[in-house]
C-alpha cells in the first residue's frame, strides 16, 4: 500500500487484495474523518475500475463479514456502472448472473449472515433491473438452483419440476434468501415508473413471476408443527411487498389479484401465533390503509372477528387506562385502518353485533387517559376516523333526498357520542401541567383542539341544534359547579359552531340562557380563581356571537362591563379590545347613549399606563364606530375632540422622548399615535350597508371643511406632520400616515378624515427616494386619483400635475432603471396608469415626459415580475382610444407612433420565449389593445417577428406568419 499526492492531501493506492481487505476493515473502524474520506475515495476508485469485478469476487471469500459485505456491494456498483456504459457483452452478462447465483448458494449453505446475503440479493436485483438483462423467471431460477445446490442453466428451466413441488424441499436458510430476494424485487420494481416502453418491460416480467411467488409464499406462510416462525415472518413481509406492488399493477390493469388473494387466509392465521402478531398486524394495517380493495368480503369478515377476541379487549382496556405500549398502539392503528376501510358498513349495519362492537371500540379510542398528542398518542387518529365517519353520514343524508335511511338515527347517535368524548379531550390542563410542556406538546394539543372544531362544524348539519343545546347545558352545569376548565372546553366548542348556524335566531333561546346567567358576573369577578384561558375563551365567544347581541341589547351592559374589566389583565387585553371593537361596530346605534361611559373607560385604561398599541387601536376604533352612528356632525364634535386629545398625549410623549434622545420610546409613542388615528379614521367610515344620499341637490356639509370641525382636522394634520418630521425614516410612521389619508378616500360626504387634496400631495412631494415605504406613498397617490373628488377641477388638475412632476423626479433619481428598486418602479408606473385618461393633459405638460415612457418600456422588458406587470397594464390602458381633447389625442397618437415599434418588439420577445407561461395572459392585454386601436400594429409586429432579437430559433417564418394572422383577426 502506498501514499501519494500533495502534502496534507495524501491519497491511498492499494496494491494487493490484502491491502484492499485492510482498507475495508479500516473503513468500518473509528478514525479521523479525513482518513476515512481518503479510504472511501481509494475504495470507490477501485470499485469503478475494470479490476472491480475481480476484487468483488475475491472479497466475498474473506473471513471478515464486513469485507464480504463490501464485496457484495462492489458487485452492485459494478452492475449499475458498467452496464450503464454497455461494457458487458451478452455472454459476460450470463456469466455474471451464474456467478452471483453461485455465490448466493455458497454463502447461504455456509451459514452466512443476513447482512451479506441480503446485499448479494440486492446485486441480483440490480442485475434484473439492467436494460440488457434477460432474467425473466428469476424466482424459479433461484428456487431450482438452491434445490440442486448449483446454478441451473437458465435455458433448461422449463425441463425442471414445478416450483411448488420443489419449494417444499428447500432448507429454511434457502427459503429465507429467496424470500429476501422476492421482497426486494417487488419493492425496487415498484419504485420504477411504467410509462416508458423499457421500464414497462420490468413490470411485465415481474408480473409473470406471480406464478412462482404464490407457491413460495404458500409454503412459507403455512404454519405447521415445529416450523420456525422466522420463516413465516419473512413470508408475511414478502407477501406485504408483493401486495403493495400488486396495488400499482392493479391500478394499471396489468395484474390479476386472485392468485395473491388466495394467500390472505394464511396471513390471517398468523395472527394467532404469538411470535407473528407484530408482523401480521403491520401487514394488515398497511393493506387496509393503502389497498383495502385487495381484501375480499370474506377477508374483512375474518378480520372483524379478531376485534372480539380477549386480546383485543385487553388492548382497549390498556389504552383506556393510558398505557400506550407498542402492541396496544399497533392494535389501535389496525382498528382505525379497519374502520376507515369499512366505514360504510360500520355506519349502515348497526344491527351486526361484531360491527357494532368495533364501532364501540373506535369510540373508546377517544376516551383514553391523558392529554392528546402529549400523553394520548392515538386520540388524534381516532378523531380523524370519526370525522370521516361523519362526512359519510352527511353525504348519505343529503344524497337520500326526502327518505332518510333507516340506519341514520343510530349512526347519528354515534356521532353525538364521539363529539361528547372529544369535548372531554379538549379540556385544558392545569397551569402547572401546561407549564411543563415543550413547544411541540403545546402545538400538538392545540392542533387536536382545532380538529375537534372541524368535527363539530362538519357534524352540525347532521346533529344540528341538539348538540348546540347539549353544549349550552354543559356550560351552565360547569358554571354552576365552578368547573372552570370544563366551562372553557364547552365555550370553545360552542365557538366552533357559530359559523355553522344558518338560522341565527334558532339558537337564541339557548344563548339567552347562557348570556343571561352569571357567566359575565363570574368572569368579571376578581375573587374567583378562574384560569385566564377560560376568561379568554369567554371573550372570544362574544366576538363569535356578536350578531346575537345585535338582536338582544339587554345583555350588552353585563357583556361590556366584562370586556372593560378584562382590559386590566395583560393576558386578556388584546382579545378584549378586539371584542369591544366588534361589539361597538355591530351595536353602534344602540350604544350612542353610553358614549360618555366608553370615553371614561378609555381614560381609565390610559391612566393605568399599561395598554399596548393594539389595545388602544381597537378600543379607540370601537368608540369611533359609535360616534359614526351619531346623525349630526355637530354632535360628533365633542366625543371626537376627546379622542383627539387622548391621541395628542402620545404625540407629546413622542416629542419629549425624542428631545431627550430616547429614540426607541419616542418611536413607540409616535407610531402609536398615528396607528390610533388610522384606526379611528377607518371606524368613522360609513358602514357598507349605510343608505347613500343620491340627491345631487343636497348641499354638502361645511362643518369639517370650514366650520368648527376644521380645527380638529387641522390637529390631525399637525400630528401627522410632527411625527413624520421626527421619524421620516421609519416605515411604520410613513405607512400609518398613508392609512390615515386613505381612510377618507372611500367617503362620499365630507368628514373629519376627508382631507383636502393638498394634504396627500404634500406628503407625496415631501418624500424622497430614500423615504421609507416610498412604494406605499406612491400607492396612496394612486388611491387619491381613483377616489371621488368634490374639489374644483382646477385643484384636482393641479394636484395631478404635481404628482406627475414628482414621479418624473423619482424616475430620474433611479437613473431611469426600474431594476434599481422594482417595488418603487411598480408603484410609480401604477401612478402613471391612474392618470390615463382623465389626467393625460397633466402628463402631457410634464417636462421630459418621454423619460416616463422609456422607463415603462424598460420595466416591460425587465425580468422583475412586479414592474413588468405594471408596465403591461400601463400600456394596455394608454394605447386605447378615449374621448379627450384634440391636443391630448394628438399627444397619445404621437407617443404611440414613437414607442409602438419598441412596444411590439418587447411584447413579441416576451411572448416568444422570454416570459414565463404564467405571464403570457398579462402580456397579451397590451397586445390586444394595441391591435384594436392602431392599424400600424400589424406592421410593427411583423417587423418584431423578423427581428434578430426574436428569442427562439425553432419557430419558423410560417409559424410566425400564422400566429400574426390569428392575433390580427
Automatic annotation (TrEMBL):
Keywords: Nucleus, Protein transport, Transport
Alphabetized Pfam families for the sequence: Importin_rep_3 (PF18806), TPR_TNPO3_IPO13_3rd (PF24140)
MF terms in GO: small GTPase binding
Record-level GO BP terms: protein import into nucleus
GO cellular component: cytoplasm; nucleus
Cellular location(s): Nucleus
Main localization (coarse): nucleus
Domain (Importin N-terminal) ranges: 39-106
Record-linked InterPro entries: ARM-like (IPR011989), ARM-type_fold (IPR016024), Importin-beta_N (IPR001494), Importin_beta-like_NTR (IPR051345), Importin_rep_3 (IPR040520), TPR_TNPO3_IPO13_3rd (IPR057942)
Family: Belongs to the importin beta family.
Identification of the protein by name: Importin N-terminal domain-containing protein
Source species of the chain: Imshaugia aleurites
Amino acid at each position: 500500500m502506498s501514499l501519494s499526492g500533495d502534502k496534507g492531501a495524501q491519497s491511498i493506492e492499494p496494491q494487493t487484495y490484502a491491502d484492499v481487505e485492510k482498507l475495508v476493515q479500516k473503513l468500518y473502524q473509528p478514525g479521523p474523518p479525513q482518513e476515512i474520506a481518503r479510504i472511501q475515495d481509494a475504495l470507490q476508485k477501485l470499485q469503478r475500475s475494470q479490476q472491480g469485478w475481480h476484487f468483488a469476487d475475491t472479497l466475498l471469500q474473506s473471513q471478515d463479514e464486513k469485507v464480504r459485505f463490501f464485496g457484495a456491494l462492489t458487485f452492485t456498483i459494478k452492475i449499475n456502472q458498467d452496464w450503464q456504459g454497455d461494457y458487458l457483452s451478452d455472454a459476460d452478462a450470463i456469466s455474471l448472473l451464474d456467478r452471483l447465483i453461485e455465490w448466493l448458494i455458497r454463502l447461504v449453505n455456509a451459514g452466512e449472515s443476513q447482512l451479506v446475503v441480503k446485499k448479494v440479493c440486492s446485486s441480483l436485483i440490480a442485475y434484473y433491473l439492467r436494460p440488457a438483462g434477460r432474467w425473466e423467471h428469476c424466482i424459479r431460477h433461484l428456487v431450482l438452483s438452491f434445490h440442486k445446490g448449483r446454478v441451473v442453466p437458465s435455458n433448461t428451466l422449463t425441463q425442471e419440476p414445478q416450483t411448488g413441488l420443489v419449494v417444499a424441499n428447500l432448507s429454511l436458510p434457502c427459503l429465507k434468501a429467496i424470500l429476501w430476494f422476492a421482497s426486494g424485487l417487488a419493492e425496487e420494481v415498484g419504485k420504477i415508473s411504467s410509462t416508458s416502453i423499457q421500464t414497462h418491460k420490468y413490470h411485465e416480467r415481474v408480473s409473470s413471476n406471480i406464478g412462482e411467488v404464490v407457491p413460495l409464499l404458500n409454503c412459507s406462510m403455512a404454519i405447521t408443527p415445529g416450523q420456525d416462525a422466522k420463516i413465516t415472518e419473512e413470508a408475511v413481509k414478502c407477501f406485504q411487498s408483493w401486495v403493495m406492488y400488486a396495488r400499482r399493477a392493479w391500478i394499471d390493469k396489468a395484474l390479476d389479484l386472485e392468485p395473491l388473494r388466495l394467500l390472505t387466509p394464511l396471513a390471517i392465521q398468523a395472527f394467532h401465533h404469538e411470535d407473528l402478531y407484530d408482523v401480521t398486524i403491520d401487514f394488515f394495517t398497511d393493506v387496509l390503509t393503502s389497498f383495502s380493495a385487495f381484501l375480499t368480503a370474506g377477508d374483512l369478515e375474518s378480520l372483524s372477528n379478531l376485534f372480539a377476541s380477549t386480546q383485543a379487549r385487553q388492548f382497549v382496556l390498556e389504552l383506556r387506562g393510558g398505557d400506550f405500549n407498542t402492541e396496544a398502539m399497533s392494535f389501535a392503528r389496525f382498528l382505525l385502518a379497519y374502520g376507515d376501510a369499512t366505514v360504510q358498513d360500520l355506519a349502515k349495519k348497526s344491527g351486526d353485533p361484531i360491527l357494532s362492537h368495533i364501532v364501540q371500540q373506535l369510540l373508546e379510542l377517544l376516551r383514553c387517559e391523558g392529554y392528546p398528542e402529549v400523553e394520548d398518542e392515538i386520540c388524534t387518529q381516532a378523531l380523524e376516523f370519526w370525522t370521516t365517519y361523519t362526512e359519510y353520514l352527511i353525504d348519505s343524508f343529503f344524497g337520500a333526498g326526502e327518505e332518510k335511511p333507516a340506519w341514520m338515527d343510530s349512526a347519528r347517535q354515534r356521532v353525538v357520542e364521539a363529539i361528547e368524548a372529544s369535548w372531554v379531550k379538549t379540556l385544558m390542563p392545569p397551569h402547572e401541567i401546561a407549564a411543563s410542556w415543550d413547544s411541540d406538546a403545546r402545538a400538538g394539543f392545540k392542533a387536536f383542539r382545532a380538529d375537534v372544531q372541524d368535527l363539530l362544524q362538519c357534524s352540525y348539519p347532521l346533529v344540528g341544534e341538539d348538540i348546540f343545546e347539549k353544549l349550552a347545558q354543559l356550560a351552565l352545569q360547569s358554571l354552576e359547579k365552578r368547573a372552570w376548565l370544563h366551562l372553557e372546553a364547552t365555550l370553545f366548542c360552542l365557538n366552533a359552531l357559530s359559523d355553522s348556524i344558518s338560522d341565527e335566531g334558532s339558537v337564541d333561546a339557548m344563548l339567552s340562557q347562557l348570556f343571561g346567567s352569571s357567566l359575565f358576573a363570574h368572569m368579571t369577578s376578581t375573587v374567583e380563581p378562574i384560569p385566564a384561558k377560560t376568561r379568554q375563551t369567554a371573550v372570544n365567544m362574544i366576538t363569535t356571537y356578536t350578531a346575537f347581541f345585535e338582536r338582544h341589547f339587554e345583555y350588552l351592559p353585563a357583556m361590556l362591563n366584562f370586556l372593560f374589566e378584562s382590559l386590566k389583565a395583560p393576558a386578556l387585553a388584546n382579545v378584549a379590545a378586539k371584542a369591544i371593537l366588534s361589539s361597538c361596530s355591530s351595536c353602534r346605534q344602540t350604544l350612542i347613549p353610553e358614549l360618555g361611559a366608553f370615553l371614561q373607560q378609555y381614560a381609565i385604561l390610559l391612566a393605568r399606563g399599561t395598554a399596548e398599541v393594539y389595545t388602544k387601536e381597537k378600543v379607540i376604533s370601537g368608540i369611533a364606530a359609535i360616534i359614526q352612528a351619531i346623525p349630526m356632525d355637530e354632535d360628533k364634535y365633542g366625543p371626537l375632540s376627546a379622542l383627539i386629545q387622548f391621541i395628542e398625549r402620545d404625540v407629546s410623549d413622542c416629542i419629549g422622548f425624542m428631545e431627550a434622545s430616547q429614540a426607541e420610546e419616542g418611536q413607540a409613542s409616535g407610531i402609536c399615535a398615528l396607528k390610533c388615528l388610522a384606526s379611528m379614521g377607518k371606524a368613522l367610515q360609513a358602514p357598507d350597508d349605510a343608505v347613500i344620499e343620491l340627491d345631487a341637490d343636497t348641499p354638502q356639509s361645511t362643518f369639517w371643511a370650514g366650520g368648527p370641525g376644521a380645527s380638529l382636522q387641522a390637529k390631525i394634520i399637525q400630528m401627522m406632520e410632527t411625527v413624520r418630521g421626527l421619524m421620516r425614516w421609519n416605515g411604520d410612521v410613513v405607512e400609518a400616515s398613508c392609512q390615515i389619508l386613505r381612510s377618507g378616500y372611500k367617503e362620499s360626504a365630507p368628514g373629519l378624515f376627508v382631507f383636502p387634496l393638498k394634504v396627500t400631495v404634500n406628503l407625496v412631494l415631501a418624500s424622497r427616494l430614500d423615504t421609507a415605504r416610498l412604494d406605499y406613498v406612491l400607492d396612496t397617490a394612486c388611491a387619491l386619483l381613483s377616489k371621488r373628488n368634490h374639489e374644483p377641477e382646477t385643484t384636482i388638475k393641479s394636484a395631478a400635475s404635481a404628482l406627475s412632476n414628482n414621479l418624473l423626479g423619482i424616475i430620474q433619481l433611479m437613473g431611469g432603471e426600474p431594476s434599481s428598486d422594482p417595488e418603487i418602479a411598480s408603484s410609480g408606473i401604477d401612478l402613471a396608469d391612474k392618470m390615463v385618461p382623465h389626467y393625460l393633459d397633466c402628463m402631457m405638460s410634464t417636462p421630459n415626459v418621454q423619460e416616463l415612457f422609456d422607463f415603462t418600456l424598460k420595466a416591460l422588458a425587465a425580468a422583475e415580475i412586479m414592474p413588468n406587470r405594471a408596465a403591461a397594464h400601463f400600456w394596455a390602458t394608454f394605447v386605447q382610444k378615449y374621448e379627450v381633447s384634440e391636443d391630448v389625442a394628438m399627444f397619445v397618437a404621437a407617443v404611440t407612433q414613437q414607442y409602438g415599434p419598441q412596444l411590439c418588439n418587447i411584447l413579441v420577445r416576451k411572448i416568444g420565449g422570454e416570459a414565463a407561461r404564467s405571464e403570457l395572459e398579462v402580456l397579451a392585454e397590451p397586445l390586444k389593445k394595441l391591435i384594436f386601436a392602431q392599424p400600424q400594429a400589424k406592421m410593427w409586429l411583423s417587423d418584431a417577428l423578423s427581428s434578430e432579437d426574436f428569442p427562439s430559433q425553432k419557430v419558423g417564418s410560417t409559424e410566425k406568419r400564422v400566429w400574426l394572422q390569428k392575433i390580427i383577426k
